Amino acid sequence: MQPSTLSSPPADAHLVAQALSSVPAADPADDPDTSYQFRTLWLSDIHLGTRDCKADALLELLRHCHAETIYLVGDIIDGWQLRKGWYWPQAHNDVVQKLLRKARKGCRVIFIPGNHDEFARNYVGLHFGGIEVLSDVVHVTVDGTRLWIVHGDWFDGVVMHAKWLAHLGDQLYIFTLKLNRWLNHVRHRLGFSYWSLSQYLKGKVKNAVSYISSFEQLLAEEAARRQCEGVVCGHIHRAELRHIGCTLYANCGDWVESLTAVAEQHDGAMQLLMWKSATSSPQVLAEMRAPAAAAASHSSTMTEPNPATCAS
Fold it and tell me: For labeling, which of 97, 183, 209, 270 is most exposed (least CB within 10 Å)?
């Protein structure tokens, strides 16, 4: 089944897998200007199949950026919402086809399913149209730094042990996004810039702040336990690039609101990028290098990094 023929809900996840494995047609606008060259690119929480997915902006990034390896770090397709109501416009189709074309042209594309596309975990170890499906993986940067790549829902107690509550939280988030669309429509008419209600609430609600901090700490500690110097994840829709102790913590953000990605330059530098438009360069929100590999023995002490300690 070609992706472009999908117009009604699939009977089960196998049909979505079929769509991902189909051979894409040629794109007349394929790679018009790949002036932005990266060694590696990480994307997460795209949520194809939802009305708030910014598929058009993501398609621009994929057309104008080239990477040797692309990691899709979970929640690429929102199976939770597709089960409730089918929504799959052409732009969402185009994103899938673009990724398939990149894989066909030699880009290594690795898909690590998250909780919203957990159906794909049934296909771990397989390939669909050249896209590898893995549960998690270790990426080695050009300077030898080991980065653990995982979506992150394994460290979310609500998702793992109270899925009904996770679904309720997802519905509240969808409601917040709907309200956010109305608020920003009014703000736009008044001449104000975009403002995220959900990010504002996350920053103000004490429990949300505590949850995010705990999530980041757990991921950094687990990466160190796995003898990795860093971790790249998604899940919480909060773009970040910083050190937690001697461990590099990178969160890709999302393509619902933040329009962010994590990238590795050819010299090994890690960057947190925000995509603005095809007429401007990606905005670099943060840039740094992971600690030296020898820092792994010290990373169990999760404090702000001491360069002398991490390099010892």
Answer: 209
Which residue type does 292 have? A
CB atoms within 10 A of CB 73: 30
Quick one: average pLDDT of 200-209? 51
In this predicted structure, the answer to whether residue 11 has a pLDDT above a threshold of 70 is no
Choose among 6, 210, 178, 215: nearest CA to 90: 6
Mean pLDDT, the chain, integer = 78
Pairing of strands 131-133, 108-111: parallel
**Residue 305: phi, psi to the nearest 5?**
-65, 140
| pTM (2 d.p.) | 0.76
Q: In which region does residue 211 sit, left (phi positive, over 0), alpha (psi from -120 to 50) or beta (all else)?
A: alpha
Ranges of H-type helices in the chain: 13-21, 55-64, 79-84, 90-104, 157-161, 163-189, 197-204, 206-225, 307-310
- Output DSSP code: residue 3: G
**Are 224 and 299 spatial neighbours (Cβ–Cβ below 8 Å)?**
yes
For residue 147, which of 241, 66, 47, 255 has the smallest C-alpha distance? Answer: 241
Residue 34's φ and ψ, nearest 5 degrees, are -95, 55
Over the stretch 98-141, which tens digit does the pLDDT of each residue have? 999 999 999 999 999 999 999 999 999 999 889 999 999 999 99
